[in-house]
Amino acid sequence: MRKQQSSSSKHESSKRQKMGTQGKFGTMMLLCLPFLTTDVSAFAPTHLFLQPSLFAGVNTALWEQRRSTSNRNSDGSQKQRSRRRRPTTEGTGGTGRNNNRNSNNKNGKRSYRVSNEEARPILTNYDANTSPQVNQERLHRATIDCGHFDTCSGCSVQTKIANIPTIQSAQSFFSSPWIRQSILYDSYDNNDDNFYQVVVPSPLTSWRTQAKLVAAPKSSAWSNDGIQLGLYRSKSHQVVAIPQCAVHHPSINRAMETLEQATAKAGIVAYSSAKREGALRYVQFQVERTTGKVSMTLVWNAETIKQTQPALSRLVKELQRLDPDLWHSVWVNCNDSTGNNILARNPNRWHRITGPEFLREPLPVGDKGWLYFTPLTFRQGNLDGFDILANDVASLVPENAKVCELYAGVGLLGLSALAHQATNDENGLYWLRCSDENPSNARCFERAVDSLPPDWVGRGNRHDRKKPQEEEITIAQLMERMQSGDAVQAEPPVGDKTSYMVASAAKALKSGQALGANVIIVDPPRKGLEFEVLDELCKPIDRHQDSVEDVSMLTIPDEMARWTNDARTLIYVSCGFEALARDAERLLTSKAGWKLESATGYILFPGSDHVETVCVFQRD
Ligand SMILES: C[S@@+](CC[C@H](N)C(=O)[O-])C[C@H]1O[C@@H](n2cnc3c(N)ncnc32)[C@H](O)[C@@H]1O
Predict the structure, then answer these.
(1) Cα 508 to averaged position of ligand 1 atoms, centre (Å)
(2) Is 380 flagged in the annotation as binding?
(3) pTM
(4) What end-to-end distance do the CA atoms of the chain give, in Å?
(5) Which family does it belong to (predicted)?
(6) Residue 340 maps to which CATH number?
(7) What is the Rg, in whole angstroms, of the alpha carbon atoms belonging to the chain?
(8) Does the ipTM surpass 0.95?
(9) Residue located nearest, by CA, to atom 27 of ligand 1
């Protein structure tokens, strides 16, 4: 007989949340196809189809108010902020990492100190990036001032950076009469135009810690005098060089210059799509902020690593000779396809040539824990800015919540919520279940959880725990199993409170990932939620469905289950406003009972026509 679980709610701290059921989380890891590719359309500016209304200025007051209230204890006192200044940081202002890369070597280039293994830098720039005055300055007065502005397609504005079509569309959307009907009554005065807030959570320049660039021949003749890197000119295949790009982290510009020199020395030829010959197609640079070092992925026109030789070895040698301190790691992605994908998706096409596998970034909340990334995993383009967004999302999650995070990547948002609770509240999250379809994330997640205090993640001594999997399995093997339709069962790789499922969001839901969860966090790709996920979220609550946490405990057939039945809060993080508008419209016009509590636009890519939006939906 299936066991029914009882509801328990220890805390009254959240006015809206009723806690779900107790119990342990099921252990299945489902595997499915990863989508690791990025389309070349990512190089072109985004297009919006919503009609912009008159640009009427941007609002920030509510965001500031929400931030200050969410950071208060139940008695109204200010919660203790965990972002104490890092003792090892010299000087005033700036982040620990900035201070870590402020000296010059004899070539006039910055030299880098690798941070001490034990010292974990914290967000010393948190206060500046959330200051209302700084925000106003960034929105209205600051300029990007880049020499490439006239020719480069990357930026569309240099000043008044919120004056972009996407934000105009968002303002129009969130102030439309029907949306006003859908706003949670106590969060908003209907006559007030300030519901939608816009903030700039990082400086306007040097924010880009990840860049994908096109390789083109340096001279017009297709000779081997090296390559130049840049972006496609708008609506063309002509490449514009951007050596002094003002929004790049300085390490990216330095890496561009070094790679260009090295290709000339090593005689590397850029790929020509017209002739279908040449070697280097694209390059991805990812900066590890604490060290300023760069992980570089060379996208090579080859099927196998063997075909890259001996040119690749010559190039890597040259890179090490020219700037040995710069490189964190060098990877090759063998991509000989004729399609639009920048990166070949098959893990067998990825090869780590030098350096460590993982890039490490401080968890955005608190002063403990790390996040781990590889070039095969998704990583935000503006990590400083996303740190603020993650803090905001974390503070929206009620105490003792059961959180299901879909499209979780390496678990950045969910683990931030866990750290926020552990740092500020007595009881922390009840549990956190993350999932993503890319199998490379699971190991990064496990490492991140391993870097947290054991009691945060619900285990005694992490060194005593049993091995997560009996058999060692590579990403390529996982991929093969998924392609043959197999699912792999494994013990949860991490403590009792946290787990990771490798599955599409739709599959994760239908295997019970959100059963019992009162909070769901979604951060889908630009195209928005999968249809099946949206469909589930649009179903009204079935009051007769038992609140259970595991599919095996359902007392109804799976086909009749409502897989998000326990969710009362939905936090939707969106990088594609058009898709968000579509999904929000469906959620709010469905019978699911969702109301919109808040909508905040984060200008995460200052200069470009892009806004990241966080919408909070609630239902009783
Ligand atoms: C915008 S990223 C967000 C990741 C994470 N929140 C972060 O900030 O690092 C979107 C994630 O969705 C994943 N993804 C894309 N399509 C998916 C699908 N159908 N089901 C599950 N995950 C998917 C990608 O692998 C990627 O990790």
Answers:
(1) 13
(2) yes
(3) 0.82
(4) 30
(5) Belongs to the class I-like SAM-binding methyltransferase superfamily. RNA M5U methyltransferase family.
(6) 2.40.50.1070
(7) 24
(8) yes
(9) 409
Number of domains in the chain: 2
Taking CA atoms only, the protein residue closest to ligand 1 atom 15 is 525
Which residue has its alpha carbon closest to ligand 1 atom 26?
Answer: 409
Mutation choice for ligand 1 from 374, 403, 436, CB with most ligand atoms inside 8 A: 436
In the predicted model, what is the mean pLDDT of residues 216-240? 81
- Consult the annotation and say whether 407 binds a ligand: yes
- C-beta of residue 405 within 8 angstroms of C-beta of residue 434: yes
232-237: long-range contacts (C-beta < 8 A, 24 or more apart)? Answer: 232/40, 232/43, 232/44, 232/153, 233/151, 233/153, 234/44, 234/45, 234/153, 235/44, 237/273
Ligand 1 neighbours by CB, cut-off 6 Å: 35, 378, 380, 407-410, 412-413, 436-438, 504-505, 523-525, 530, 575
Place of tokens 């249809």: 531
Identify the domain boundary among 338, 356, 374: 356
Least confidently predicted of 434-448, 474-488, 564-578: 474-488
Looking from the CA of residue 36, the nearest atom of ligand 1 is 25
Residue 199 placed within a domain: no
Residues 223 and 342 both lie in one domain = yes
Residue 501 is assigned to a structural domain of this protein: yes
pLDDT tens, position by position, 233-279: 887 888 999 999 999 999 999 999 999 999 999 999 999 888 888 99
Report the alpha-carbon angle 445-447-452, nearest 5: 95
> What pLDDT shows up at residue 79?
44
The domain containing residue 308 runs over which residues? Answer: 210-356
8 A C-beta contact, residue 592 and residue 537: yes
| Catalytic sites, residue numbers | 575
Q: pLDDT tens, 318-363?
A: 999 999 999 999 999 999 998 778 999 888 999 999 999 999 999 9
Q: Which of 356, 389, 409 marks a domain boundary?
A: 356
